Each structure stands twice: as C-alpha cells, then as structure tokens.
Amino acid sequence: MELQVIQSKIYEIRGSRVMLDFDLAKLYSTETSLLKRAVRRNMERFPEDFMFQLTKEEANSLYSSGVFQAGTPQYNFSAYAPFAFTEQGVAMLSSVLRSPIAVKVNINIMRAFVSVRQFVLTNESNTKEIEYLKHRIEELEHQGVKAFAMIERLGEETLETINDLSEDNRKEFDNVYLALSQLADKKKQPKPRNPIGFRK
C-alpha cells in the first residue's frame, strides 16, 4: 500500500498523531470488532500514550468536519467511540494480532509516521528561517532610512560613503531574497499530506 494512502489516515487528536481502529482494521483486512476485541484482551500492552478511546464529542466532531471518507458509518461513532492508536500503539498491534498481513502493513505504517514527522519538522525549520530573514529585511530597510537621513543632514561630502553603505545593503538584500526564493522553491516540491484531525 502506498505511503500517501496511509498518511491520509493519520489524524492529529489531543496533540498526538494517531490512526483510528476502523482504518487500521481495513488495512489489516480484518473486522473492526475483531481488532477491538484483541486489544481489549491485551489492555496492559496499551497504556494511554499508546492508545486511547475518543469521547463521543471528539468522534462526532471528526465526522462532522468531513475528514472521514464517504461511507464511514456515523452510527458506530454514537454507539462505540473509536480507539485511537499512536505510533507506539500501532507498533504494538502487530504483536497482538499476530498475522503476516499485520506485520507487513505495520512496516508501511511506521514509514508513514516517520514521513509525516519529518515533514512537520522541516516545515517548522522553514518557518523559523523565514522569520529570521523577514527580521533581517526590516533591519536593512531601517539602515536605508538612516542613510538617507544622513545625506540630508551632512550634505554632498559624505555621499560617496553613503553610496558604499547602500551598495552593501543592496548585496545583503539580494542574499536575503535569494534565500527566501530557495525556501519557496523547496515548499513547491511534492510533500506528504498534512495530518488533519481534531485539535482539543
């Protein structure tokens, strides 16, 4: 199964990236009820940072926001709130289900979680770099204003010095905008789909 398909089933709930029981059951080619039964028989293997059950409000909010594919039965949400599995919880599932399909699928799921995490970290890094460059532009613009004020105050004899300063500023402006351009090109490259989900 393609990583992008799995990535589209990773949601962010309570500040954690998770997969839901019915999506996992479909990937494992099993019934959701059988997956839940196996988990309940082994609850000691699933602490809260591995797996938690959505509240009815969380489940209904996810459903009404349209993040689920068409055909997901809403009545299951009102009667049985889904289990949400973190990356560690999904890894534990393969030992509980003990099927060749579960092991094979889990390898791809782990890769999908890693890919999403790397994408998020890269975006955070780009955001910090852009903020620094914006701050540098503001500093250069401020220096330019000061330079023109000096020309008016001191006259022609300092014009050559000011021109040197302006040339330095222009070079640094070029460097800053080049860096911003490279960041923009980087963000245009194909990237994993953003995890979509309920944020408490």
From TrEMBL:
InterPro entries: KilA-N_DNA-bd_domain. Residues 8-96 form the KilA-N DNA-binding domain. This is KilA-N DNA-binding domain-containing protein.
